[in-house]
Amino acid sequence: MNLYPNFITFVPLGLLHIDGLPHGAETFSDVSPSDAHFLMLAFFGSRKHVDSTLTDLRPDFVFLDHAHWVPSFARQVGIKSVAFITRGAASTAYIIVPSCNIQNDDDKTRLSLMEPPPDFPHDSSLKLYAHEVEDAIPFWADKNEDSGGLTTHQLVVNSLTECNFICIRTCREIEGSYCDYLEIQYKKPVLPTGLLLPDQTRTLLEERLANWLGSFKTGSVIYCAFGSQIILSKDQFQELILGIELTGLPFLVALKPPAGFETVDEALPDGFKERVGGRGLVHGGWVQQPKILAHKSVGCFVSHCGFGSLSESLLNDVQLVLMPQMDDQYLTSRLLSGELKVAVEVVKNESWFSKESICSAIKMVMDEDSKAGFEIKANHLNLKGLLSKQGVDSSYIDNFINKLQEEINK
Hints:
Elements: H1 36-44, H2 47-57, E1 61-64, H3 70-76, E2 80-85, H4 89-95, H5 107-112, H6 130-140, E3 143-144, E4 150-151, H7 152-162, E5 165-168, H8 172-186, E6 190-192, H9 207-214, E7 221-225, H10 234-246, E8 251-254, H11 272-276, E9 280-283, H12 289-294, E10 298-303, H13 307-314, E11 319-322, H14 327-339, E12 343-345, H15 355-366, H16 371-387, H17 392-409
Parallel strand pairs: 1-2, 2-5, 5-6, 7-8, 7-10, 8-9, 10-11, 11-12
Antiparallel strand pairs: 3-4
Helix pairs in contact: 4-8, 4-14, 10-15
């Protein structure tokens, strides 16, 4: 897997096993959202290994995401630290700033999270609803007894406060005002790295899938994927599948098997395969998402609103239908659907999304006579033009590397 062995060395990091963490779990993809804090605790338990490795290697920089203790330790041994954020600037600016104080037993905190923090960009349309706040608080308010009883939120804010500077996988064309807000909050440089999309020119879409997609007319196929971390319940999985079926359009769905099931086929609604026939595929494993999004037959992307997936879609012609599942995704969805107006967010009822609301949102962007759909397509096309302009992405990386070099030379 190492394409540059002369430049890159991998250092294995073993996680301690703790009660509650599934055996062999090493990333968020291996655990359910409710078990995520066990993974964090196991990772925090690797601190001695990380610290000794940094002491031995003495690099110029150490990049971190969840390793909250690293900036403080790095400063002691003369290493500069860079916090690398992959969740986007808007959601980070809303939740992970010093002025947003999350406490588990504070009703005022719950109410305050439904509105942006003080001095937030004035033209922002971001907000969280009550049920979304309830979903977010347990993770951010979880206290780590090994870190003086501080909450996860406090630990992350402290690490961003203590690092030398912050970089975010984003670009100013999408989130410029939120990068500026984070610079003010943390009083240090916040550097967009660009979207950091890998080169796809050296790979081809799997022949079987390419042939299937090629059998449908341009822009007619719905593609649905929720990333590597989202595991739906059976009821949620079936409601989503039925909503897509209701559109009458061809579709490709790539989802993990629902909780309690080994395969997606076991969880399909009764009679689904017979009704759909050859116009729909439901796949339970990995797929070549960038290649699928770039295929001329794919016209709609139903997404959980993960920032990486959205970056890929914004550089293609697919229309976005968003079904956010957790705090950063809710906020990114409001950014794209409310502020940039390049997507539509599916209306959610008290429990989840209904098949009718899923079908309605998809038809809004796929119907050629839809006025709202026309506006969304026009805005998407305009943003795609800005992001794909020659030299834009490379300019972000060049600037980022120059900033690193300036830090070394100080």
